[in-house]
Amino acid sequence: MTMKTSLFALLAVVLAPLPAAAQTSDLNPAANREVTVPQDITVEQDDGPLTGTVTDDTPWQELGIAIASFATSSDVATPANAQGTGALGLELARIVYNDLRSNGLFRPVGPDALPRPSYGQITAPAWNVWQGRSAEMLVQGYVRANPDGRLTIGCYLYDVQLQQEQARAGWVVQPSEWRRAAHRCADLVYSRLSGESPFFDSRIAYIAETGPRDNRVKRLAIMDSDGANHRFITNGQSTALTPRYSPDYSRIAYLSYVDGNPRIYIYHIDTGRQTLVTQSSNPTFAPRWSPDGRWILYSMAIGGNTDIYRVSAAGGGTPERLTNGPAIEVGGSYSPDGRQIVFESDQSGTQQCYVMNADGSNQRRISFFGGRCATPEWSPRGDQIAFTHIVGDFHIAVMSPDGRNMRTLTNAWQDEAPSWAPNGRIIQFFRVERGSGEPTIWQVDLTGENERQLRTPVGASDPAWGPVLP
User: Fold this and answer.
1) All domains of the chain, ordered by start, with CATH?
2) What pTM was computed for the model?
3) Count H helices, E strands: the chain?
4) How far, in whole angstroms, is CA 128 from its chain's centroid?
5) pLDDT tens, 339-376?
6) 127-147 CB burial, b ≥16 within 10 A, e <16
7) 251: helix, coil or strand?
């Protein structure tokens, strides 16, 4: 699939007054099409999030949300679901439900336990039905098959107690892209109720592992944020490690042993072309993108000494060395503003975390809490750094950029390699259970109270969460 290809036509109906027919704006600006929503709707102006911006990491009081099956104006066949648009409406609601139930903020009830609204009730909810079920918020939607084969999908959020609409949006999608519309609906609900940025309409890169422990095959793979639409990128003939999406989703930087030596390649998603980041006979590893996508940060070992470098992501140019001590320095990660880099080093005698300016100046240690500090990654919010805390076992932990306020979020045997969700509330990592040897991908929120496993078809390690899709 080409990232430059328009996937959606966005119906601009989020908390703005609209007539019965609203103009859409494709991700491709050249394509504008009209979409008719069911019934005339008068919508109040947006007064902002219902509950305020959430920047703390304390547990929330869960908000009850009923997520009903999406209705259809006519149950007809569609390539998106062999059973028709009626069955597709149920699947859409199930995805919204599964997205919202796993982040610790809401108490959703899914469509399989709820009555199914009619098409006409999507914009005129049966309030007595939902009040009788003690629902605080209601998510309803519709799916309609268009003559050109595409689908129109609408999403509505209501406050049941106030009997008011709070948000709505709609999308025109190809049948193969219906899941993205469901994720966007979940993002709409999540952002409106939490005040935070969305993150469900995003993708994850990871390393797919198969085979015996002494002859492991490690392939680069990608999937949606919920594990759907899984796809292998490399064939496993050479080991792949530590993938990272570029900020615009067009490329993935990763470590490959193509010629027997660890070197960093960039995979171009739209063409499948691969390019070598820098021509060097020395081992290079641990690639990270700068927030603007202009630079690749990486580590290179020369004569037993490992330092952090940066090189132009466009290819060519001379790499710039940012650290130059006798220690082993790896795993750099930029702050969201691109001004600082967090990395790990053993210059103090043990594996610890350090911060430096983006040009390599002002290096200082920040981890002084006992144990070792590894694989640090800066939060997209900029307020915290996630890392692997090694104290016998391996745990996922967070700390402030100055090293204070350290908190451990997981307590299993081997949890490592944290990667942030685009909005900075969820951390993804991989786990190996004691005695199993099989890695699996897990997620935990900033409270440490909500863990869940992300299912993959094979063993999975080195997860990297990309930004929200354009």
Assistant:
1) 64-194 (3.40.50.10070), 202-468 (2.120.10.30)
2) 0.85
3) 3, 33
4) 37
5) 999 999 999 999 999 999 999 999 999 999 999 999 99
6) eebbeeeebbbbbbbbbbbee
7) strand
